[in-house]
Design goal:
- The chain has about 210 residues and is of the alpha+beta class.
- The protein is built from 3 helices and 6 strands.
- It has one domain.
- The strands form 2 sheets. It has a 4-stranded antiparallel sheet with strand order 3-4-5-6, covered by helices on one side. A two-stranded antiparallel ribbon has the order 1-2.
Length: about 210
């Protein structure tokens, strides 16, 4: 019972942090027409750094259920590259153009791959139900007929050696053993068990 209560507390804390991040996205949207880049090389930046001036406390980027205790300034959440673009994709999504904001997933719990507890800025390794890498490059277009099919769950395992492999850049179902928390473009956050993150949550072309 104590362990279950602790897990519920971790989940609630994480969801609260995601909602705070959602407010930061909203404030950024009031100032700019485009979503921030997910991960950009020239000039080097990423969404977490772009939004930092909108956070009251950078600890909102952390999930207390994370396996590896993250160092200050790190994050346990990665972004959907269909909305927050990765390095090889020179575009930014306009706030006003984003379809289905109540279904469009912005960021979620992701795999830790460094001793610092860091995660990748974007979900570059996430695959849709057919095995297509959602982030590209270039970003794939989703098939509307497959919109309600669940994405592949991937390795769902942290590692701390700092090496990058094809199983990184994906969701981490760290809550209650089989669920990930996610923030959506309309600002709401929810807990999604394995099999409940669908293609329609990741793709933005329909």
């Amino acid at each position: 019972m104590l362990n279950e209560a602790r897990q519920r507390a971790h989940t609630a804390n994480c969801l609260g942090n995601l909602r705070q991040i959602g407010i930061a996205f909203e404030l950024y949207g009031d100032d700019f027409d485009f979503y921030p880049p997910g991960n950009q090389q020239t000039p080097p930046t990423e969404w977490r750094k772009v939004l930092q001036d909108y956070f009251k406390n950078r600890d909102v980027l952390l999930c207390s259920a994370a396996t590896v205790r993250s160092q200050p300034g790190r994050s346990n959440f990665s972004a959907n590259p269909q909305i927050l673009s990765d390095v090889a994709v020179p575009y930014q999504e306009r706030y006003a153009r984003l379809r289905r904001p109540d279904e469009a997933l912005l960021i979620g719990d992701s795999i830790q791959y460094k001793p610092s507890g860091s995660v990748h800025a974007v979900l570059w390794g996430t695959r849709d139900s057919a095995g297509t890498v959602i982030g590209g490059p270039p970003p794939a277009d989703g098939d509307f007929s497959q919109a309600d099919e669940p994405i592949q769950t991937g390795a769902d395992k942290d590692h701390t050696d700092g090496g990058v492999n094809s199983q990184d850049g994906d969701f981490r179902y760290r809550h209650s053993g089989a669920a990930a928390n996610a923030l959506f473009a309309d600002g709401h956050a929810e807990t999604l068990s394995k099999g409940r993150i669908l293609n329609r949550h990741m793709y933005t072309n329909y």
